[in-house]
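Dear colleague,

Thank you for sharing your sequence with our group. We've completed the structure prediction you requested, and as agreed, I am returning the results in plain text so they can be pasted directly into your records. Please verify that the sequence below matches your submission; if there's any discrepancy, let me know and we will rerun it promptly.
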Amino acid sequence: LAVLSLLMAIAIAIPVGIISAVRPNSYLDYTFMFIALIGLSIPSFWQGLIFILTFALKLQWFPATYNPHNWLSLIMPIIVLGTSITASIARMTRSSMLEVIHEDYIITAKAKGLNEFKVISKHAIRNAMIPIITVIGLLFGGMLGGASVTEKVFNISGIGSYIVDKQFIPDIPAILGGVVYIAITISIVNLLIDIMYAFFDPRIRSKMKKS
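Please find the predicted structure tokens below.
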């Protein structure tokens, strides 16, 4: 659930953040950032209940609870869990891109006659990705621990709801196992992020080769 929500967030947030940065203070910029602010402000449990009432009970587009044999039942949990993440990544992408596109090498690339698409895609995005990747990694770690609310709303038997349930017994070994599992997963994600740093930033890659 966390991985699918993160993929959805990246696919939506990064293009939105780039468009907002390329067209600052425009109608699109204000609209996207206003929607992102709403996404950050909505509690996930409230959003989940509203989705169930609207799309499951009234419109009957999706199942109200999770069913492993029906992939449609994953759509609402993915959107609910990924909403705040999408908003955070979009705002971070906009801020990072705004810093990069005013750098001297971007102005030089434009002065040489490169069109805006090539300047943004080949020069600006790669240099703006470092803080964005950092935020994505931190948010993914938070999703693993905070997904329990979404899992409870949609009746999903995930690791987050498992740990919450075991706290009421209490089952200390089960809680310890769940926490260790999440910690190992976050450590692996941080390792992948460090590797991605070298992929996007040639300066980091050259330092790694020298060392």
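Summary note from our side: The first helix runs from residue 2 to 22.

Kind regards,
the structure core
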